[in-house]
Every structure is written in structure tokens, then in C-alpha cells.
Amino acid sequence: MDKTRRRLDRWSYWTVILLLAALGLLMLALPSLIVVATSLTSGYSLRFPPPGLSLRWYRSLLFDSPDITAAFVTSLKLAAAATAIATVLGVAAAIGLGRRGAPWARLLEALFLSPLTIPSLALGLGILVLFNLFSAGLSFASLLTGHVALCAPYIVFTTSASYAQLDPTWLDASRSLGASPFFTFRRVVLPNILPGILSGAFIAFMNSFDNVALSLFLSDGRSEVLPIRLWHIIEDSLDVRAAAASGVLIAITVLSMLLMERVAGTSRFLR
Amino acid sequence: MSRTTTWLTAPLCLYFVGFVGIPLLLIFFISLHDTPAMTGIGIKGYIRFFSDAYNRGVLLDTLLLGVETTVIDILLGFPVAYLYVAAPRWRRFLMFMVLLPLLTSTVVRTFAWVVILGNHGLINTLLAQAGLIGTPLRLLYTPGAVAVAMAQIELPLMILPLITAIGGIDAHIIEASHVLGAGRWRTLRRIVLPLCVPGLLTGTLLVFTGAVSALVTQTLVGGGQLAFMPFYIYQQAIQAQDYPFAACVAIVLLMTILLIVSILNALGRRSAGYVHG
């Protein structure tokens, strides 16, 4: 290839890659920025750009939106409880699966990861039918039942990943020095897999907090979760309070993400 | 931590059998009833689903949405992942840009698209100020809008596996290709893309399954006029109280997803030979 063709090749290649990457990055960032900008409006409707800036909708969200605050608290409780239960079950399962590549272990792992591909709407409908079968009414417990299944895959996945990196000779060393299995777990295994557990718990929490499909089938009238409340607001009235609530959620996400990256290096487990 | 730890899988296993396995079997069992009152065993529900052009349309539109979303995400996700691998100094920033939307609530991100595409939204305002349009364009509640919003929602799930795939390519192979006289484009087509196939398949699997079952984005950006499978399930179960038919729709969606996942997995096993063989 002569020099000009070579230059043209390189130039066109990088132009296309950079343009598309810029468009991709714009797509990733734009929505959150737009929501935050809109939430700072001084007007009454969702216009972009906003006519003026003010924090009025955040004040309104904080002081006179009992429906949104109640839903926020319900979602927090639900996500925390579901994550806690799923963490205990998931970490135990991940250690039980261990490094084994046996067919039964692979089958079990596929079972534990299945909620990632099953539409949660179908799962929600199924659990609803199960509760109806036993004439158990819907309550916080039915919500929790579904959300634990939703959270578990993330914890199994990240905990398995960090457990696989643990050097098995350490476990042999601990055992041969006379440590009990529980002592080995507490002093050798746990400190090493803790970043994996924390990362999985974090991702599980965020997913539970965000889930609409399961909650739609499994919540009773009294326990409405935040994403469903916001969904209804956006569908019915396009209230600016929804933008303010979104602004709060984005801020919480950014802060918790930076914190988890520091504490547990979460991004490693997402690749 | 020896063989004796196997029992530790039992609690989660029991939980999954009880609250994932049995519920799904129950849906299948219910779908085999002919009337909303659960009388008559048969496959009338499935016949009803596939004999009606409206229902087939809902299924096809849902699958089409999955395909469109995947195509947009490959086109935009590949360059971002490529940039991540090619520019080490930008990695922290790029990873933040990819992970933030992934962890941000879907309702919030969908809401953003309602604001961007609405009558007084970003795009209509920009076009009106540029003097290109007099009255706002109807952007929201169109199939195109749903595909674009869905592509944004699912984009991180395409980028992450692609980063792993591109990052795993031996730089010497690329160098060899250049030394032997192949240009950038030819190297991309003949070396980089084939080696990325496993990552592309993983990304496709995640994006497609996410897009076809994303209730919130489909309903908020699509509005009442466009029907997709997830809302159809909800509508039949809760609004029409027709559990057997809702179960049929759910099983059809589930089976379609499982079929596509197994095709992608089979392709993945073949393409792994490509990379390591």
C-alpha cells in the first residue's frame, strides 16, 4: 500500500470509531444530565431547557410528597431485606459450588443464575399464583419472596468469581495448622472473598430497588415501591416531582458507586 | 473447605426450587386451561394466541424491538469498548460512564427519554429554535423512540463483555497484521471482529433478553398504542383477570427467550474454538 492510501485508511478508521464512540458516550450520559437539569426548573412543567433554576421541586419532594417518601422507605426496606437474605443464601451456595466443574455443579449454577434471563414478569406471575394456591394474601412477605430470587444470582456470580481466585493451598495450610473449618472460613476465606460479596450485594440491592415487574404482581395496596410510584406519576401526570426524585436517585447512585468502587473494586466484577 | 461443603448449596437450591421452579411449572400448568375460570384442560389458549393476527403482531414487534436494540448497541458499544482498550489513560473515566447508567434506576433513565422526546423536550426545542419545524414532531410513542430508549438502557450490557473480548486479543496479532500490509479496516474485519465473537454473543444475549422483557421502558416510551409481550401479560392477568391466557403469553415469551439463548450459546461454543483453537 502506498503512503496516501495508508494514511486515508488510518484516518477514516479512527474518524468512524471516534464518532461512533462519542455518540455512544453521549447516549450513556445524556439522559441523566437531562433529568437533573429538568428537575432544577422553576416552572410547572417538564420543559427542556427549563425557564429558570430553582430547588422548589426538591423542597416539594421533601416536605409535601408523603406518597413518594413512603414508597422510598418501602423500597429501601425491601431491597435491604432481600439483599441480606440473598447474601446469606448466595454466599453459602457459592462456597458449596466451590471450584467444581462437575456437571451437577454447572447445572446448579445455571439454576441459580436463571433469574437473569427469565423475564421477571413471568416469575412474578408464577409466585403470585403460588401464593394464591395457598390462599396466602399479598404482603411485604410476598414481595420479599420474589426479590430474594431476583437478588441471589448477582451474589452467587460475584462470590464464585472471587472464590475461584482464592489460592487453594491457603486452605490446606490453614487446615494442616489445625484450624477448624469455621475458623478457616472466618480468617482465610471471608477476608478474601469479601470484595466479591460486597459487590454482589451492591448490584443486587440496586436491582431490587429498581425492579417493577415483580413488584407489580407481588405487592399489596399498602406496600407500593418507589419505581412503581414514579412509573404511575410519569404515566399519569408528568409531575416535576418525578424529576426531583430521579435527581435524588442519580445522586445516590453516583455516591454509592464511587464508595463501592473504593471499598470493594466493584467494576472488576462487572467485566 | 473440602467435599463436605456441598451441603451449603442446599438452602438456596431449596429456595429456587420453591420460588422459581415451582412458580414457573405452575404458570405452565395454568396455561393449559381453556377458560379464565380454570375449567377444561387443553391447549386452546395457545391456539387462541397463534391464530390471532394481533397476538402474532405483538410477539413479532417484541422480537423486532429486541433485534433493533441489539443492532444499535453493537454499532455504538463496539467503538466505546474499543476506545476503552486503546486508551488506557481514559479507562477510569470510561468505566464510570458505562457503569453509572447501568446502576441508575431504569425508571429514571426511561423518564429521561420522555423528557428528551416529548413535545416540549430537548429535540423538539432544538429543532424549533433552528427554525426547522413549526409544530412539535411526534417522537414519543413511536416504535423508533422505544428502540432508541431501549438501546440506551441496555448499552452498558453490550460494552462490558466487548471490553473483555477486545482486551483479550493479543496485541502482537494486530501488529503482525499491520506489518504484513493489512490496513486498519481489513484488520478489523479479518482479525478483531472474529476474535470478538464470544463477547458479541454474550452482549447480544444480555441486551436481547433485557429488551424483550423491559416492561417499564416499553410502556412509558411506547405509550398505550404500542403493545409488547410484557405489558400484554400484565394486562391479561390483572386487568382482564384471565390467568390462563396471561400464563400462555408468559410461556410463549419464556420459550422464545430460551430458544434464542440456546441458539446463542450453541454459536458461542462454536466461536470459542475460533479464539482458542
Radius of gyration of chain A: 24 Å
CATH architecture verdict of the largest domain in chain A: Orthogonal Bundle
Query: Most extensive interface, residues per chain?
Result: A-B, 97 and 94 residues
Shape of chain A: globular
Euclidean distance between termini CA atoms of chain A = 38 Å
Please trace the helix and strand order of chain A, writing H or E for each element: HHHHHHHHHHH
Largest sheet of chain B: none
**CATH architecture designation of chain B:** Orthogonal Bundle
CATH fold field value of chain B: MetI-like fold
Helix content of chain A: over 70%
Number of domains of chain B: 1
* Strand segment tally of chain A: 0
Which CATH class of the largest domain in chain A is shown? Mainly Alpha
CATH topology of the largest domain in chain A: MetI-like fold
Domain ABC transmembrane type-1 (chain A): 72-261
Family (chain A): Belongs to the binding-protein-dependent transport system permease family.
InterPro entries (chain A): MetI-like, MetI-like_sf
GO biological process, one term (chain A): transmembrane transport
